[in-house]
Every structure is written in structure tokens, then in C-alpha cells.
Amino acid sequence: MNKGRHPFWPQLASLCLFAGLATPAFAAGPVEYHCNGDGVSWTSSRPCDASKRNEFRGMGNAPAAPSYDSAGLPTVTKAPEYLPYMSMECAQLNDAIRTGPSRGLKEGPMSELRADYQKRCSENEASARRQLQEAEKQQRERRDDQQAAAQAERSRSLLSADQCYEMLRILHGKRQRASSMNDGEKADLRLFEENYKTRCPRG
Question: I need a surface site. Which of 2, 63, 75, 103 has the fewest CB within 10 A?
Fold first, then answer.
């Protein structure tokens, strides 16, 4: 066997170097998927079912790779909406992971932070997500109730306006015949006028 350098060694080394550069910074950690269904959240090493949410995570549930601004500096990602529902400890860990790249933390400490977050806060995050979903559901229900109440009020106003218009039409006809009415009919006219003024004060 020829123990010298293989004729394709330079090309092989180039391919290995390219593969190493192309590997995401979080590849050292386990690849996980965040699944969500039936009000329950969980992490999995396999893609979620088609009916479940399928969110890729590089290391735990925290953002795996920072984004960069036009100057090439890491930017701080927006805080998740469920953050207020997390415990203080886990919220602080979440913030530490989000702001780590902008504070100059290297991949080693960042990997440790993500692993610690996954170990200590995965259940807390799932609970916070459920609480956020419930809060959003209640907010939608309140908004729907307000819209329904407003629509009902508009319908009542339109119905009242139609009824007042009809009463005014009848009252106008009665007044035109007032000179030929007997005492009983005149009494009915006065009663109708009072009812109209009470029911339609702006008429």
C-alpha cells in the first residue's frame, strides 16, 4: 500500500475545511424541534407531526444563532411575548441568551447557557406559552363580546329609529283629522302624542 500522500488529499482537505466553516455555530448541541398542539408544548429530536407546530431549535428552546446589523455587530433579538409569564430565574436566563452575542459572549459560554436554560426552564417556558395562549384567547373573547354588544346597540338604535318614524307618520295623519274627531278620538290622539314624546324624545 502506498503510504504517501493521496493524489486527492488537497481536494479532500478543502472539502473538510468548507464543511467546518459551513457548520452552524450551534451544531455542537443537540438538534431539537419545538412542537405545540392541543395546548401543550414539548421538544423533540424528530420533526413534529404535520398537524403540530414545527419550530427548529439548535440548542434547547433559546435562539441558536445571532443576527447582525449593517456594521456586522450582533443585534439583540426581540423578547418573546411569553416572557412575562415565566419565572424570574428563567426570564433572566432567556434575556442572557438573547443578549449574549451583543455582550461579546463566545460560543462556549453561549452553549452552556442554552444547555442550562433547556435543563432548568423547558417546562417553565411551555407553561408560559400556554398562559400566553390563554390570555390571548380571553382577549379575543372580550373583543368579540364588545363587538357583539356594539352591533346589538346599533341594531336597537336602528329599530328604535324605524319605530319612531312610523309613530310620527301615524301621529301626522291623526293630527290632520283632529278637527273632525269626537272627544274619545281626541283623547286617543293626546295619549298617542304623549307616548311618542316619551319614546322618541328627539323626535
Answer: 2
Q: Please tell me the distance from the alpha carbon of residue 199 to that of residue 180, in angstroms, as a whole number.
A: 27
Q: Please give the single-letter amino acid code of residue 193.
A: E
Within a 13 Å sphere around the CA of 159, how many CA atoms are in the beta-carbon half? 6
Q: Where are the domains of the chain?
A: 158-199
- Whether the Cβ atoms of residue 109 and residue 59 lie closer than 8 Å to each other: no
* The three cell numbers locating residue 201: 324624545
Q: Residue 25 has what DSSP assignment?
A: T
Q: How sure is the predictor about 19, in pLDDT bands with cuts at 50, 70 and 90?
A: very low
**Contact status, residue 94 vs residue 117, Cβ threshold 8 Å:** yes
- How far is the C-alpha of 97 from the C-alpha of 26, rounded, in Å? 13
Helix axes 88-99, 107-176, angle to 10 degrees: 110
| pTM over 0.70, yes/no | no
In 3D space, the residue among 25, 24, 15, 45 whose CA is nearest the CA of residue 33 turns out to be 45
Give the helix/strand (H/E) hosting 95.
Answer: helix 88-99
Q: Which residues contact 160 (CB under 8 A, 6 or more apart)?
A: 199, 200
